[in-house]
Amino acid sequence: MISLQNIHKSYGTKRVLRGVNLDVARGRSCVVIGGSGSGKSVLLRCILGLNVPDQGTITIDGQQKMPMDRFGMLFQGAALFDSLPVWQNIAFRPLQNGMPHNAARSLARAKLDRVGLSPDTADLYPAELSGGMAKRAGLARAIATDPDIIFFDEPTTGLDPVRAATINALIRDVVSDMGATTITITHDMTTVHHVADTVAMLKDGVIHWHGTRSELASCADPDVIQFINGNPA
């Protein structure tokens, strides 16, 4: 479903991506890990088309242009629009595409229910939500159009362990139900263990290691071991 071939991206003299190769199969959940500044977010922006790679090819289901109507995105910090009630946040894309307000509101309430939030949440504003509720609302927006592909950018950042575990479980359940292909960017190993089918470690601008979640547990690579155990350099 998603194929990256020899992706390079630099900013001035700083080479961030130096030849990334990565394939994500249809219906699979790939988690990209790596240290701060390793280029995870840059990689995600290249896939989304927000940044143009200096070199290399990205194809989505065989197309070299991201099919914008086929993907959903859960942003770091949820990134809800402060001036809109929750239901308009969730149904933002359908509303922009001309869906009537009554239908969009019903859609939003159904997605709220799917992520474990009460229908009353629909009329609240983002400032009235807890961090965990905001993440759930962000997830509801990400799945509002039943996308084929979903991207998760640090989905548990800022959450306590209990709420983080809840979000991870929701992501896994929702993605499994939808059969979506996903890429998750994270440094949280709990998220890796909950949502990953495959794991790719980005280091020095390339995919340093790539394998299944079970292979990660028995990996002998010292850089991977250092990262997953949080050992000091």
Structure description:
With 233 residues, this protein is α/β, with parallel strands linked by helices. It has a single domain, classed as Rossmann fold (3-Layer(aba) Sandwich). Helices cover 36% and strands 25% of the residues. The protein is built from 9 helices and 9 strands. It has helices at 40-48, 86-90, 92-96, 101-114, 131-142, 161-178, 189-195, 213-217, 222-229, and strands at residues 2-11, 14-24, 29-33, 55-60, 71-74, 149-153, 181-185, 198-203, 206-212. Strands 5-6-7-3-8-9 form a 6-stranded mixed beta sheet. α5 (131-142) packs parallel to α6 (161-178). It is globular. The two termini are 36 Å apart. The mean pLDDT is 91.
Order of helices and strands: EEEHEEHHHHEHEHEEHH
Mind telling me which CATH architecture this is?
Answer: 3-Layer(aba) Sandwich
Radius of gyration: 18 Å
- Report the uncertain regions: none
Strand content: 25-35%
Question: What would the CATH topology be?
Answer: Rossmann fold
- Write out the CATH superfamily name: P-loop containing nucleotide triphosphate hydrolases
Average pLDDT score: 91
Percent of residues in helical segments? 25-40%
- Please list the strands of the largest sheet in the order they lie side by side: 5-6-7-3-8-9
Task: Please give the CATH class.
Answer: Alpha Beta
Query: How many β-strand stretches?
Result: 9
- Inertia-based shape: globular
- Give the domain tally: 1
Main structural class: alpha/beta
Largest sheet: number of strands, sense, barrel closure: 6 strands, mixed
End-to-end CA span: 36 Å
| Number of alpha- plus pi-helical segments | 9
